[in-house]
């Protein structure tokens, strides 16, 4: 039996889906977290008779006439894929809007069960809903649920109703307003929809008693006035992000990291003593330095990342992120985007791939493509080890490094959006409207579950792609082209060095023209965690964050000496890795959301140029400030940057001219 | 008739017309319950946005959209 979950955005479909299937799909307290359909089996405890029950979670929709592309996934599914039962999730605090979609679903002929979700919130507000009367009016079962609770949540009852109805093979009775299945003219359609709302309004006045009318000011509205205030909004956001980075990178994170790195060291030593002296040194080095060292260097950052994601999950759960969209809308408007673009970027802070996919909630095509192109500039989870590494080694674990990279990301996105708008010559404005979720106390449990899921993904990735990459890097740097083992005194003769060296020349003006850094930047395209792994392998450093050891040898000075670059060049390298194209998987996501090869290649080219120019500026200006002269390769770099700026400028002028011409043509027509 | 952007806080207004060339935003507002004859209330004005109440939900809209909703 196929059960489709359908309902308004942020009514709790995915939370309910997770509760009945035991899966851990990403949830958040805002509209539009789910942008794809997801399937799962009902878990045993809710399905005692072991029936064949498949649940399909669908993106939220306000109606059967989709406004954005993820809404059309929902419409297409319920209309064409013949689910056996539609489980309509209704936010019980907002009957008067939600039932509009319900009445449309009732007309499809497929049996419908209504889950009145968030019923704890209705109780808290002192509202009452007459369930039997509502069920009578809709001609379908209505069951109260609280899917955030683990017991007494109404889910068993809900599934019983679904199974009974699904087996009965009865067609759904509909209130017969008409119009969902028939093709109507626009006027007829509007008439039907008005009738539909009138029908819903009648039901609501009959079944619902509200203690406080919803248009009255609440405590939440007062909180909004401060949090989303015109001038206070940005500083509040900055402090919150700084706190998140401080807790994860400086306060709580390192405590866990120390313990964790200790285990990795034990493993390293254990394997080393197991291997003993008699093992072939090449094999030993591959296993110890290549695999355990490289993967260990990446995994060592896991505790920092988990703490960071835990804090972000709490923020997402509280409803704060939707307010960030309001605060930043003003700035994004100026460059042709809107607050809508913030949501993909916030999701992109976890991982760029779902972030890019979340751009489908954006209606306007240019805005959607621009957002898909710029979302990877946010520091994703895989880039955090790079940030943490350089913050630890060169900047004494300062949390301003992470915070400033986060905000630099936002600033670069705004500047880039401005450039892209000029290049495309598309100055169209679009309206911004977004539902505001209610604040709630974030749940420690939900945040923990989401963090554990991310940690699992991280470990799997480290144990597969990153392990293989590190092994390959180790082999390539061990042998030269004659397949002879490279002498320790001449590492630059290895295959890896000879491949990466020509590339490293390009990086001289950026301050890190060493083949090791070039190799790490390249492996970073496979997965950004590789940057740290490859550096660990190339410089044979097994751990980057053992504070105890670093303290013994006089701070992190040692690792920075091994790297052989200045702190300014390190910052430039960090910037370069954050603002070059993302990993291949994220580029793949960009390709499918942009649906245009021209845009995709333009985006990758633009990202490469942006990374190069920013790293150049950071290194040269930084060196000028710290030493009083420009850094190495200034002239060569300046020429490269000048060429980039000139060609971007050319495209911008061409784009703007295009607009002028089309504007002139329009005026001629008028 | 005036635009919602010039409305006062905490005063329920009746929507008269959604004045825009974009048919889809009009339809979208309709599905949210914002159409001629229905009530809309401004809850607050934040940054460049208006927080409005339609039916039983809060939405954040920008000034352009607030200008397009005539009450």
Automatic annotation (TrEMBL), chain A:
SUPFAM superfamilies: P-loop containing nucleoside triphosphate hydrolases (SSF52540)
Domain FeoB-type G: 1-168
Bilayer disposition of the protein: Multi-pass membrane protein
InterPro entries in UniProt: Fe2_transport_prot-B (IPR003373), Fe2_transport_prot_B_C (IPR011640), FeoB_GTPase (IPR050860), G_FEOB_dom (IPR030389), Gate_dom (IPR011642), P-loop_NTPase (IPR027417)
Keyword tags: Cell membrane, GTP-binding, Ion transport, Iron, Iron transport, Membrane, Nucleotide-binding, Transmembrane, Transmembrane helix, Transport
Subcellular localization, as worded in the UniProt entry: Cell membrane
Transmembrane segments: 226-245, 287-315, 374-394, 400-420, 458-476, 496-518, 530-547, 559-579, 599-621, 633-652
Keyword Hydrolase: no
Family note: Belongs to the TRAFAC class TrmE-Era-EngA-EngB-Septin-like GTPase superfamily. FeoB GTPase (TC 9.A.8) family.
Role according to the record: Probable transporter of a GTP-driven Fe(2+) uptake system.
Protein name as it appears in the record: Ferrous iron transport protein B
Record gene name: feoB
TrEMBL record, chain B:
Domain of life of the native organism: Bacteria
Domain Ferrous iron transporter FeoA-like: 2-71
Chain segments annotated as transmembrane: none
Gene3D superfamilies per record: 2.30.30.90
Position of the signal peptide: none
A Pfam family: FeoA
Keywords on record: Iron
InterPro entries: Fe-transptr_FeoA-like, FeoA_core_dom, Transcriptional_repressor_C
Listed name of the protein: Ferrous iron transport protein A
